[in-house]
Amino acid sequence: MDAVPAAAAVAKGGRDRGTEFIAVARTTDLDPGRARVIHLRGIEIALFNIDGAFYAVDNLCPHEGGPLAAGTVREKVLTCPWHRWQFHLETGRSPMNPAVEVRTYPVQIEDEQIKIGLVIDL
Ligand code: FES
Predict the structure, then answer these.
(1) How many distinct structural domains can be found in the chain?
(2) How far is the CA of 20 from the centre of ligand 1 (A)?
(3) 30, 46 Cβ separation under 8 angstroms
(4) Is the distance from the beta carbon of residue 80 to the nearest atom of ligand 1 less than 6 Å?
(5) Is residue 71 one of the residues assigned to a domain?
(6) For the chain, does the N or the C end have fewer beta carbons within 10 angstroms?
(7) Structural domain of residue 73, as residue ranges?
């Protein structure tokens, strides 16, 4: 997977914000078609390997908190195991209702390490 450049932006309050990429696993730790839950600084993240490309989204479904890492993925669309809401892994948006989305996180692969990006104050 291509590296995603670190993003930087100025938040509404005028504070500089950036993205810190944190190593969470090795690429060999997660086989294609599998997912795992990552606990990262108090956030529960579902990490997916889809044909060798890695995607990270909040593990808790925005509907009623279902475990998205236990969902099924078809053509990069994740289906929640509880009530079948769906989210595109690249955008987090529901293909059925654009007003519904789950938070996504940028992923970098560097030296076989999977890194997830979290927004930080600079
Ligand atoms: S908790 Fe995910 S669809 Fe209801």
Answers:
(1) 1
(2) 29
(3) no
(4) yes
(5) yes
(6) C
(7) 25-112
Residue 61 in any domain: the answer is yes
CATH number at residue 39: 2.102.10.10
78 CB less than 6 Å from ligand 1? Answer: no
Prediction pTM value: 0.87
Domain presence at residue 107: yes
pLDDT tens-place string over residues 74-116: 999 999 999 999 999 999 999 999 899 999 999 999 999 999 9
Distance CA 9, CA 60 (A): 26
Asked whether 54 and 60 are in contact (CB, 8 A), the reply is no
| Pocket of ligand 1 contains residue 63 by CB under 6 Å | yes
**pLDDT (tens digit, 9 = 90+) per residue, 22-77?**
999 999 999 999 999 999 999 999 999 999 999 999 999 999 999 999 999 999 99
Cα distance between residue 56 and residue 13, in whole Å? 27
Tell me how far apart the alpha carbons of residues 6 and 13 are, in angstroms, rounded to a whole number.
21
Neighbouring-strand partners of residue 13: none
